[in-house]
Amino acid sequence: MVMQRGGGGGRPSGPQARQMRIAECLVGDETGIIIFTARNDQVDLMKEGKIVTLRNAKIDMYKGSMRLAVDRWGRVEVAEEAADITVKEDNNLSLIEYELVSVEA
Predict the structure, then answer these.
(1) Residue 14: strand, helix, or coil
(2) Which of 25, 96, 97, 81 is closest to 54 using CA atoms?
(3) What is the structure's pLDDT at 14?
(4) Residue 11 banded pLDDT, cuts 50, 70, 90
(5) Which range in 84-88, 90-94, 98-102 is most confidently predicted, on average pLDDT?
(6) 32: how many CB neighbours lie within 10 A of its CB?
(7) β-strand 52-55 against 75-78: which pairing, if any?
(8) Average pLDDT over all residues of the chain
(9) Helices (H), the chain
(10) How far apart are CA 76 and CA 53, in angstroms?
């Protein structure tokens, strides 16, 4: 699913407004799977069954769970050749809920 955002929240609308496209994609490797939040041009690169390399990716916390993201300092690259990768689908890191715990000294 691709969601488009822009124009609201007191920001300018019309031709000068910047539209943002967001898609949540399930990505994985031999260690597990996680939800990747693709933004703008990244959305077009994410196709089911394709092999992608996420360089300089980071973890964002959303409602207590992890999401993988690549910001302007990172890069999403689609592999030219097929690779023999077995994805560990039974380890979904996005399903683990985390809670911020304060430790008093």
Answers:
(1) coil
(2) 25
(3) 56
(4) low
(5) 90-94
(6) 15
(7) antiparallel
(8) 86
(9) 41-45
(10) 6
- As a whole number of angstroms, the distance between CA 21 and CA 40 comes to 5
Q: How far apart are CA 61 and CA 51, in angstroms?
A: 24
As given in the structure block, the two tokens for residue 64 are: 């207590």
Among 97, 23, 20, CA closest to 61? 97
**Res 24 pLDDT > 60:** yes
Q: Is the C-alpha dihedral spanning 85, 58, 48, 64 positive or negative?
A: positive
User: pTM for the whole thing?
Assistant: 0.77
CA–CA separation, 28 vs 51, rounded Å? 10
Q: Cα 82 to chain center, whole Å? A: 22
